[in-house]
Design goal:
The complex is a heterodimer of chains A (245) and B (698). Chain A is an alpha/beta fold. Chain A folds into two domains: 85 residues, no CATH class; 152 residues, Rossmann fold (3-Layer(aba) Sandwich), CATH 3.40.50.450. Chain A is 45% helix and 14% strand. Chain A has a seven-stranded mixed β-sheet with strand order 1-2-6-5-4-3-7, sandwiched between helices. In chain A, strand 4, helix 9 and strand 5 form a beta-alpha-beta unit. Chain A starts with a helix and ends with a strand. The relative contact order of chain A is 0.15. The model of chain A has no long low-confidence stretch (mean pLDDT 90). By secondary structure, chain B is α/β, with parallel strands linked by helices. Chain B has four domains: 204 residues, 3-Layer(aba) Sandwich (Rossmann fold); 195 residues, P-loop containing nucleotide triphosphate hydrolases (Rossmann fold, 3-Layer(aba) Sandwich), CATH 3.40.50; 64 residues, Arc Repressor Mutant, subunit A; 188 residues, Rossmann fold (3-Layer(aba) Sandwich), CATH 3.40.50. Helix content of chain B is 41%, strand content 15%. Chain B contains 26 helices and 23 strands. In chain B, the strands form five sheets. A seven-stranded parallel β-sheet of chain B has the order 3-4-2-5-6-1-7. In chain B, strands 8-13-12-9-11-10 form a six-stranded parallel β-sheet, sandwiched between helices. In chain B, helix 1 crosses helix 3, helix 10 packs across helix 21 and helix 14 packs antiparallel against helix 18. Chain B starts with a helix and ends with a strand. The chains are: A alpha/beta (245), B alpha/beta (698).
């Protein structure tokens, strides 16, 4: 899979590609202003990586963002290629808000300026169905592996696609319950996607097309967005929400 | 950016105010700098490919772009590049294992913009630790990407390397606005097409591949003794310095040693070569390259490790002691000669062993389906395995496992990923592309056949080479042996020289080092945990020959097949012991051997006759008490050890004094190691291991 030019642009402007990457990425306010400028100018995002990027940016309304910084960031092509080779090289897919495959529900909830790039393993179309999110908050409950599996199994029996935050304790148990009943699950988090996808807990589910793993953080990169954003994306992707308080 | 500014830079680089662009140079620079395009330049060595990327770098840097990163396969080339960059006031640095301690400092300087050019090898680029420690820290500053010897990215090329596959994957990920320059002097149409297919929108600029100073010749000399004799006479007859290419490290050592015996200053060169005073091989190779560069050695006897990018303008000859795998590879290697001088010689010798060696290389080039499936199944069973862990599950050598995992890891998407020291199965379905493997294997067979035809052809040899590279020149060179109708060098070794070479081959015994560390949990019965105590190890031993080699190896093979080792071998071993193996510190007092249940008399009979010849009592004190699987079928350390656990017993009442321990063949050396351990444990004197032939590759 390749990364679309528009998502490449978003990555170069907004993401450090590793913990050591010191590029000064665009802060939220400048990002929003830049998106506005792109819209006003009528340019597609994919045009930002053409050979006349400099001229295109010079022709935009320049308010609210540092145009020179944008140009510097859009020259991070080698860095992006080195980083994304590692992602794509182990089967991770990458979709951004301007891609057709990107879940519309996330853009509806967060807008283009707030919708994060998604890094994933497994079938992307699992994100378009009706899903139920499971939020495990209670300490007693989260200690019970059996109970968590049972919850997953029950939802699977009812044909629900189950979404859980895989950074939380016992998320694997819920998904295990889902997958054991031949259901479908989505594991969402902000941790290292390659580590999760290559683990015994999740690997078979992904390979059987019954589990999709998502992360907001580029593999080997710095955490993007934090816990709140993970919850926001989960909320956007699910129609029903089960909270265990 | 205009042409005048670029020309000014070129003149500065060359230190010549009258210099002008060669055909295609400005067009290449313009494509990269003004159009930020992707370009593959196929031009002969000496055309000025480096001038293109240095001038482009100068112009891009002046316009505020980040530094250029050059991926280059050879250490020697990197040093040449740094010197060339300095002439354009470009600050260049190579990042390699030799300056590891300075990496932190280099990173800071790169971020501060102090370097304009950064050189790394493809192996570094593919190394995850290097990416994490260095590349990630500087990648966001980089501007132009240059791939030197770009033909390596094509697996249709003669010299495909797995690390270049990752480089291809990086190139495929480059955004449209990132300029890339690939350069090569050896790419035929098939390779160029493949590079274009792999990288998408890349423009190709192609020039003529002429080499007017080279006079070529081919000679079929099947036996090694005659070939060695010819080679010594040839090198003696040549002015200047040269390179002799061999197919294996063992041949490089052997040929180099032969030339030295003939008073010629020769040194071996290959990956992993060692010399006293050089703690690691890279610095040793660098030293050898410098010796040749400064004409401080007459000849380097090298494997293809000394190939791409080694630029010594006055190199006057290149001889292939064994035929190379392909014509394209040959053109590149022979093209090292005569770059800056008017006359140079390239001779390709063809021997009996060449076809067999290439067949082995082709057979070993790709893993088989069943093995790949078993490995992936094993990885799926757990959460990460080290190579040592995997050795327990697979009877494969450590190196073979590393190669196999590397092969899989450069597939995209890959079914495996390495994290720390462990390998994991990724959630990626994978099937080995057997069709591609078959196609590549057939192509390599065709390439080898093309080499055989080159040796046999009566047409102009240079034209043959150029046509193979799709340079359709029709004019013959007028310099090769076919154009002249007679040999280009008048060398005919006399009978004495051939006899001397034969004797040399028969005296090419090798030292035999036994093992020091066992695989954990492999010797439960013998209770060897890990380190074999020094007091229970053997001394350094000897191996008379390589299996079926041109020295004594053929006689050993005949004896093995026929069930009896001839008296000539007894005499050869006795002569080696008496004349060339200094045993004065521990002269053997008795002799014993490794027993076998399958051929119970073969080795004891030989050992007894050797004992009689040397005046040593033969005592068969080692008994085989368990019938195990053939040891030669055990590949990795765990299986080699485990297969021998509890197999032998040694008498307790042993003769006194040092003992000569004899076996016929040696591969992993674990059988001799275990037998030596048991002998020492039961009170024997020093153990001196001896084998007739080594069956391992090399």
């Amino acid at each position: 899979m390749k990364i679309s030019p528009s998502t490449q642009s978003v990555l170069m402007l907004r993401y450090p590609f590793s913990a050591q990457d010191t590029a000064a990425i665009l802060p939220d306010d400048q990002w929003a202003a830049f998106l506005g400028a792109v819209n006003v100018s009528g340019l597609g995002f994919e045009r930002l990586l053409s050979n006349d990027t400099g001229l295109l940016i010079d022709a935009m309304p320049q308010q609210g963002f540092d145009a020179a910084q944008v140009q510097v960031l859009l020259r991070r092509g080698v860095a992006l290629a080195i980083a994304s080779e590692q992602w794509i090289g182990v089967g991770v897919w990458v979709v951004g808000p301007h891609d057709d495959l990107y879940p519309k529900s996330v853009i509806d909830r967060l807008g283009f300026e707030g919708a994060p790039v998604l890094f994933g393993y497994g079938k992307i179309d699992l994100l378009d169905g009706t899903a139920t999110s499971v939020h495990l908050g209670d300490k007693e409950l989260t200690r019970s592996e059996q109970l968590c599996e049972h919850i997953g199994a029950l939802l699977a029996v009812h044909g629900q696609t189950v979404i859980v935050n895989v950074d939380r304790t016992q998320a694997a148990s819920v998904l295990n319950g889902v997958l054991n009943r031949e259901g479908c699950g989505v594991g969402m988090g902000s941790g290292d996607l390659i580590e999760k996808g290559s683990s015994h807990d999740y690997r078979d589910g992904v390979m059987n097309n019954s589990l999709t793993l998502l992360s907001l953080t580029p593999p080997n990169g710095r955490c993007f967005g934090g816990v709140e954003l993970v919850d926001e994306v989960i909320a956007a992707l699910s129609e029903n929400h089960l909270h265990f308080i | 950016m205009d042409r005048d500014k670029a020309l000014e830079c070129l003149r500065e680089a060359l230190g010549d105010q009258a210099a002008n662009f060669r055909d295609g140079q400005w067009e290449a620079i313009e494509h990269i700098v003004n159009r930020r395009g992707k370009l593959l330049v196929v031009q002969r060595t000496g055309w000025g490919k480096s001038a293109v990327y240095f001038v482009a770098t100068r112009l891009l840097r002046d316009a505020g772009a980040g530094p250029t990163i050059i991926v280059s396969p050879l250490l020697a080339l990197m040093r040449n590049q740094i010197a060339a960059a300095q002439r354009l006031s470009l600050h260049a640095i190579s990042i390699d294992s030799a300056n590891r301690e300075q990496w932190d400092d280099i990173i800071i300087r790169i971020r501060e913009g102090q370097y304009d050019v950064i050189l790394i090898s493809p192996e570094r680029l593919a190394n995850d630790q290097f990416r994490e420690e260095v590349l990630n820290a500087i990648a966001s500053t980089l501007g132009l990407l240059v791939i030197d010897e770009a033909h390596c990215i094509s697996d249709w090329g003669h010299d495909f390397r797995p690390d270049y596959r990752r480089l291809v994957n990086v190139l495929k990920m480059l955004p449209q606005n990132t300029p890339v320059l690939g350069t090569t002097a050896t790419a035929n149409n098939r390779v160029v097409d493949d590079v274009q297919n792999q990288l998408g929108e890349i423009e190709v600029h192609r020039g003529r591949l002429i080499r007017e100073s080279l006079a070529l010749e081919t000679l079929e000399i099947p036996d090694q003794a005659t070939r060695l004799a010819w080679l010594a006479s040839f090198v003696e007859s040549q002015q200047g310095t040269g390179i002799v290419y061999t197919l294996t490290k063992r041949s490089a050592d052997q040929v180099s040693s032969w030339l030295c015996d003939n008073g010629i200053d020769a040194k071996p060169y290959y990956s992993g070569v060692s010399l006293s005073g050089f703690p690691e091989s890279n610095s040793c190779r660098e030293h050898l390259e410098t010796l040749l560069m400064n004409n401080q050695v007459k000849v380097l006897v090298a494997t293809i490790a000394l190939g791409m990018g080694y630029d010594k303008p006055d190199l006057s000859f290149v001889v292939h002691y064994q035929s190379p795998a392909s014509i394209v590879g040959y053109y590149q290697q022979v093209g090292r000669a005569g770059r800056g001088i008017e006359n140079a010689v390239g001779v390709l010798l063809r021997g009996n062993e060449d076809a067999q060696i290439h067949e082995y290389f082709r057979r070993e080039a790709f893993p088989n389906v069943e093995l790949v499936e078993r490995l992936l199944q094993q990885l799926s069973r757990g959460d990460g395995y080290s190579i040592r862990d995997l050795e327990g599950f697979f009877n494969l050598s450590y190196i073979r496992l590393v190669q196999l995992l590397k092969f899989l890891s450069v597939e995209s998407p890959s079914p495996v990923v390495k994290r720390g020291s462990k390998w994991f199965r990724t959630p990626v379905p994978f099937e080995l592309d057997q069709e591609r493997i078959e196609l590549l294997t057939h192509q390599r067979e065709d390439e080898w056949n093309e080499v055989c035809k080159y040796v046999a052809t009566d047409q102009c040899l240079m034209t043959y080479l150029r046509n193979a590279l799709d340079d359709q020149s029709i004019a013959d060179c007028g310099r090769c042996s076919n154009c002249l109708g007679h040999p280009i060098v008048n060398v005919s070794p006399d009978e004495q020289a051939v006899k001397a070479a034969m004797l040399f081959l028969k005296r090419s015994e090798m030292p035999l080092e036994l093992k020091k560390q066992a695989a954990p949990n492999s010797f439960v019965t013998y209770d060897i945990s890990y380190n074999i105590p020094k007091s229970l190890r053997a001394k350094e031993g000897r191996v008379l020959s390589g299996w079926a080699d041109a020295g004594w190896g053929r006689k050993v093979k005949d004896g093995f097949d026929g069930g009896h080792y001839c008296d000539e071998l007894v005499e050869a071993v006795a002569e080696m012991i008496e004349k060339r193996w200094d045993l004065s510190a521990a002269p053997p007092q008795w002799i014993t051997c490794i027993p076998s249940l399958r051929a119970p008399t073969l080795v004891p009979d030989f050992a007894k006759r050797l004992g009689d010849r040397l005046g040593l009592v033969f005592s068969p004190v080692i008994r085989k008490i368990l019938d195990n699987a053939p040891q030669r079928e055990q590949i990795n350390r765990f299986h080699c050890c485990h297969n021998l656990d509890g197999v032998f017993a040694v008498d307790t009442d042993l003769p006194s004094g040092p003992v000569l321990l004899v076996d016929d063949t040696v591969n992993s050396a674990w059988t001799l190691t275990v037998a030596s351990y048991l002998l020492r444990l039961n009170g024997s004197g020093e153990v001196l291991p001896l084998a007739l032939a080594a069956t391992g590759g090399g």
